[in-house]
Each structure stands twice: as structure tokens, then as C-alpha cells.
Specification:
With 353 residues, this protein is mainly alpha-helical. It folds into two domains: 2-155, no CATH class; 168-342. It has helices at residues 2-28, 44-47, 57-95, 100-103, 106-129, 138-144, 146-149, 157-172, 175-185, 191-198, 213-216, 229-238, 254-278, 285-294, 304-315, 333-342. Helix 9 (175-185) runs antiparallel to helix 12 (229-238) and helix 12 (229-238) packs parallel to helix 13 (254-278). The N and C termini lie far apart (51 Å). Its main location: mitochondrion. It comes from Lagenidium giganteum.
């Protein structure tokens, strides 16, 4: 309730400071869908192919402020929906015996995961916006640093593609070191080395990744709880939610890093199950970009067919012909987290030299 109250307070100050201008924008703007389907951030005039009229200073200011107003509204509705999902989940847990993934859709699960993260990311700038007079500089700061200071609701479609691609590339920069660490562990059995050599060191076919389960399970050398501290740090940076700040993981104790990695693996595991159950054909471009960025897939951003193919290859790690929601196929957490560095998605090559 406190987070929702803070969001409503920020929206109140936003409407108060923008005055008549904000009222005009709000009344003329359609509320974007916030179930992690990513609003387009485009107005009708952005799609017109005809000649464009020169905008007056007032219209230019209105157009410039529109993403901030839309983003604030979208974030408010996302948190509002999150409260409804939590209430639904609480009611289900009191009566049902099935798991969470059986009662929630993937969009509801994404809202439950992302709403508080989006709010926390935007909260400093929203709080600064509430400061009289100097708060008017908040949109300027947000406009200059949207990736660092604003959640996805405030991004334009081209910015989403750019930012997701940049984050995926930042994660992929740690793949060569991660693969070298695995090869050092594989000096006795040479399973990983032989499989990589068989594929020309370009990465494994995703369908082959499951063959490495013994190497990553409880009795294997790459079990998550037995990985050395440096390996855990590199692994955390390769799947970080915010790669720009992933270096902070080095400041935390080893057990906290392990818990963080377990949570990330659980999130990917549940999302994979839901994608297998619901399919990926109905996902929008931005939803596909978000899903691929989370999994560290570095290819195809901006191309919906390429992203869908890459995500389908990721899901081919599972036995897609026999998907059982009651007893889903479950990979070891360590294997799931290392999969982006081991697999080859849509012929994306990773240098290991």
C-alpha cells in the first residue's frame, strides 16, 4: 500500500505542475496496455506518411512531455494491476493445491515480477519532480538519461530495441570468461570441451544443452553451491537485471550471491514453463526483446521473426513434445544460468579466444 500511495502522490504532483498542458495531454492520450506488452509510445501523427506541419513551441513542448505523462500513467496502472494479481494469488494460495504458474497467466506473472522493480527505478526521479520549482528539471534529466533513470514505460519503441540490445551485448561480454571457467572444471571428463569442439566452438545447439545436466547437477563439478566466488561473480554479471550496475555484486557475501542466482534461475524456469504452455506466436516485438534480453540472447533485436526464432531455439532445450505442467522438466539452476554462454541462438557466434 505504501508503494501505491507514493505512486499516486507522484501522479498528483505531476498533474499539478503540468497544469493545463498536462490536462490536454492526458485527455488526448490512450492509456497503454501494461501487462508487460510494452506500450508503443507512438502517437497517430508518428505513423502518418504525409507531409508534416511545423509544430508551434507549445505543440513541441506537448509532444516532448507526452512520453513522461504516458509513462507515469502506465506505471501507475501496472502497480494497480500488481495489487489485483497479489490479491488473486493470495486467495488462490488459501484454497488451492496447484502451483502459482497454474493460476496466473504469463502477463500476470510478469506484472508481479516487474511492478516493484519499475517503481523503484523511477522513484528517485519522481520524488525529485515533486520538489517545487527545481522539480521541473526532472523531465530534462530523464530525457537525457532514460535508460539509467526511467523504466521501460517511458521509452520509445526505438529506445526499447536499442537498450535491450545494449544490455544483451553487455551480458555477452562475460560469456568467454564464463566458458573458460567451465573448461577449467572439465579437465577430467572433457564433456564440455568435446561438445564445444564438435560444434566448432561456436556454441552448442540449444537442444544439446540438456546433455550437460550431470555436469551441473548436485554431484557435478559446476553445481551452483560449489562454484568459487569469482565464478559466481562472473555468472551474476552475465545474467544481471541491470548490467550497468552488475559490478556491485562483488560487494555482497557469497551466500547472498548464491541466493540471487537461485532466484534468477527460478524466474527463468517459471517463465520458460509459461512460454511453453502459452506459446510465443502472440508476443509483440517488445515482449520478445524483453524475453530474449533476460536470457542473454544477443541477436535479432528489432526483427520480430529473428527474435521469435531465437526464443524458440532457447525453448528447444526442453522436451517441447511432452510439456507437462504438473511435472515440468526442470534443469539444474547452474545449467540454466550458464545456458546463454553455452548455447548458439540463431547462429549468434561468441568469441572464446
Amino acid at each position: 500500500m505504501r508503494a501505491l500511495a507514493m505512486q499516486r502522490m507522484a501522479m498528483g504532483f505531476l498533474a499539478h505542475q503540468q497544469g493545463t498542458l498536462t490536462s490536454v495531454i492526458l485527455t488526448s492520450t490512450k492509456v497503454p496496455h501494461t501487462c508487460r506488452s510494452f506500450s508503443s509510445g507512438m502517437t497517430k501523427s508518428d505513423d502518418d506518411n504525409g507531409p508534416r506541419k511545423e509544430l508551434s513551441p507549445y505543440q513541441q513542448l506537448q509532444k516532448w512531455l507526452q512520453p513522461f505523462v504516458q509513462g507515469s500513467r502506465a506505471m501507475y496502472h501496472e502497480n494497480k494491476q500488481a495489487w489485483h494479481v497479489r490479491a488473486k494469488l493470495k486467495q488462490h494460495q488459501q484454497t488451492a493445491t496447484t502451483g502459482v504458474s497454474a493460476v496466473l497467466t504469463r502477463q500476470e506473472m510478469m506484472i508481479l515480477r516487474q511492478a516493484h522493480r519499475d517503481l523503484l527505478k523511477a522513484l528517485p526521479l519522481l520524488a525529485f519532480f515533486c520538489v517545487p520549482l527545481v522539480g521541473y528539471a526532472a523531465p530534462v534529466i530523464g530525457y537525457a538519461f532514460p535508460k539509467q533513470l526511467l523504466p521501460w514505460q517511458f521509452w520509445r519503441p526505438d529506445q526499447k530495441t536499442q537498450f535491450f540490445s545494449e544490455d544483451a551485448q553487455a551480458k555477452a561480454a562475460h560469456y568467454p570468461e564464463l566458458r573458460k571457467l567451465l573448461l577449467q572444471m572439465d579437465r577430467k571428463q572433457h564433456n564440455v570441451e568435446e561438445m564445444l569442439a564438435r560444434n566448432g566452438h561456436e556454441g552448442l545447439n540449444p537442444a544439446e544443452v540438456g546433455e550437460l545436466v550431470p555436469f551441473f547437477d548436485r554431484n557435478g563439478p559446476a553445481f551452483l553451491d560449489t562454484l568459487p566466488r569469482h565464478h559466481l561473480h562472473v555468472l551474476s554479471q552475465s545474467i544481471a537485471l541491470m548490467p550497468a550496475f552488475s559490478w556491485l555484486v562483488r560487494l555482497f557475501p557469497k551466500n547472498m550471491v548464491q541466493q540471487y542466482l537461485e532466484r534468477r534461475a527460478d524466474e527463468l524456469r517459471v517463465d520458460d514453463l509459461m512460454l511453453l504452455r502459452e506459446g510465443i506466436d502472440g508476443l509483440s516485438l517488445s515482449e520478445l526483446e524483453f524475453a530474449c534480453e533476460e536470457r542473454g540472447i544477443v541477436t535479432g533485436y528489432g526483427n520480430i521473426d529473428a527474435l521469435r526464432g531465437a526464443l524458440r531455439e532457447w525453448l528447444s532445450m526442453y522436451d517441447t513434445d511432452h510439456v507437462d505442467a504438473a511435472a515440468p522438466q526442470c534443469f539444474p539452476s547452474s545449467l540454466l544460468l550458464h545456458a546463454p554462454a553455452l548455447g548458439r541462438f540463431s547462429n549468434a557466434q561468441i568469441d572464446t579466444k
